[in-house]
Amino acid sequence: MVQHPERMSDSDPTTRLVPKNPGNSRGRATLERLSLAALEVAEREGVEATTVDAICLVAGCSRRTFFHHFPSRDAALLGPAVPSVTPEAVARYLAATIPILAGAIDLVDIPEEMSPLSPRGHRRHALLHSSPRLQAAARERMSPAADTVLAAVTAKLAQEPDLDPDEIRPVARAITAIAAALIQSAYTAGDSDPSETLRRLAPLWPRLN
């Protein structure tokens, strides 16, 4: 049975939801055109009614070209910008004396295009609000970055002399989950700075446990 390419079942978000590296300026231009076409179609027809064929028609591209750049319709709807964590950021996090949770949040680089404060980010943000399924895809797309943050937080906690080694992994998972929730909450609320949300919570920490 041939699997429909618009409904890929591969659970790996790097395969199903992350755009492919365009490699050159022509490829980047095509990726951009397809991304904008996906946004235009979804705004007009709705997320669930958007198809690869409709995106290709607006972009003036073939299906083959589409799948050369995006692995799925959802990947195109989410756009080419992907949250990332660089090795350099992890190295700074591990070397510096900084708050573990705030530092974990700052590890994640959210591209400007994803910010609800940018024109295109605002449009995509509206799409996400209209589709719980697309929201779930956006969270899934964050999972590779979350895995990297988890590894960094685990290594950071291992530097704490008073922490029971058996507690490192579960505490690291909890911190990473809180960081992810704050990032997601800020993004959903249209705020581009999850660290500000954390600062607002700081006075309440003693009453939260």
Q: Describe it for me?
A:
Helix content is about 65%, strand content about 0%. It is elongated, with a radius of gyration of 19 Å. It folds into two domains: about 5-80, Homeodomain-like (Arc Repressor Mutant, subunit A, Orthogonal Bundle), CATH 1.10.10.60; about 85-200, no CATH class. With about 210 residues, the chain is mainly α. It has 13 helices and no strands. Residues about 1-10 have low confidence and may be disordered.
Can you tell me the residue ranges where pLDDT is under 50 for at least 5 consecutive residues?
A: 1-9
Shape descriptor reads elongated
Radius of gyration: 19 Å
Determine the N-to-C terminus distance: 53 Å
Mean residue pLDDT: 86
What is the succession of H and E elements? HHHHHHHHHHHHH
Count up the helices. 13
Q: What's the story with the biggest beta sheet? A: none
Strand content: under 5%
Number of self-contained structural domains: 2
Could you say which structural class the secondary elements and strand pairing correspond to? mainly alpha
Question: How many E-type strands?
Answer: 0
The helical percent reads 55-70%
